[in-house]
Amino acid sequence: MARTRRGIHGREATAGWLFTAPMIIIVGLFLFVPILMALYVSLTNWNGNGSPFGGSDTAFVGARNYTSLFTADGLTRQNFMQSIGNTFYYVLLVVPLQTVTALLLALVVNNRLLKGKGFFRTAFYFPSVTSSIAISTVFLFLFSNSGAVNGLLRLVGIDGPQWFSDSRGLLHLFLGLFGVGDNPSWARADIFGRSLWDWLSGPSVAMCVIIILAIWTTTGTFMLMFLAALQDLPVEVDEAAMLDGVSAWQKLRHVTIPMLRPAIFLVMTLGLIGTWQVFDQIYVMGRGAPDGTTMTPAFLSYNQSFRSFKYGSGAAMAFIVFLIIVALTYVQRRVMDEDRVPRRVRRAAATRPPDARSAQLAGTAPTSARTDGER
Description:
The protein is mainly α. It has 17 helices and 2 strands.
């Protein structure tokens, strides 16, 4: 019998590999092989002429493309470090704001008392399925000097900024309110070719427009993820919280959010990856202008490769961003430590008072079962 079972399982494994083989081949040819080719290009000085693999105009330079981005003085390092600084502030603002906004919207559309749930879900999700190029073009008109945003600001007596030509950082503007002048002596230390004052500039006024656009267009997708997670929460935990007499805020803070930890980790990870790879909005809304304050590593890598024809340096930038994403994702996973949450929830459910369980079994406890229509 044991030999027969092994034979059956062996045939199942073979059938499984046969069914998945086409997709494995496709993913390998169009994903992993190009990644390996790009990695090799990042170790050469290929300028786009001929083949990067053994061509007469291509030389293997090793890690020089990587080290030059951190050690060699010049415009390339200056632009790359500026793009890293811009993206750092972009990620720091976009990821938390879009996560919190998506969770709040999911809580709103998941409310049983809300009428017209289908309409609100569609309205909140609609920006996510609209062309990013079209939305970027609309934002160019909205935030132009004579656009609707500045028009509304003038109604309340505020002379709106020149959004797409103002390169000043928000932190510089804030420090200026306290009399801190431009490039003070304490902030002149050189860090990778940029002064500390430049690193502390904060997002520029122009970058703020792109941040608003990113939050508005991505929140709908993450709202659906949170909504699916909310509807998958155990009903018994909500009932236990109701029987314990906790408030809505206490239930959200101590019950709902801890149980949503895996969904929060997913949303923040996807947001982290997406923000470090932002390209199309930058391409449409100024291509790094003004003064490079909206430049991102993804756009700089494209510019370095297809405009300056330095494909090795452009590929090196892409792989550095890849390593940054991997490192930040690992740190985020360690900080959130999502594996502890299910154990905590199970302990809380196991220590529920007997009278609450008895009331529920007897049918006297309020139920929170939701039908498909209510969801």
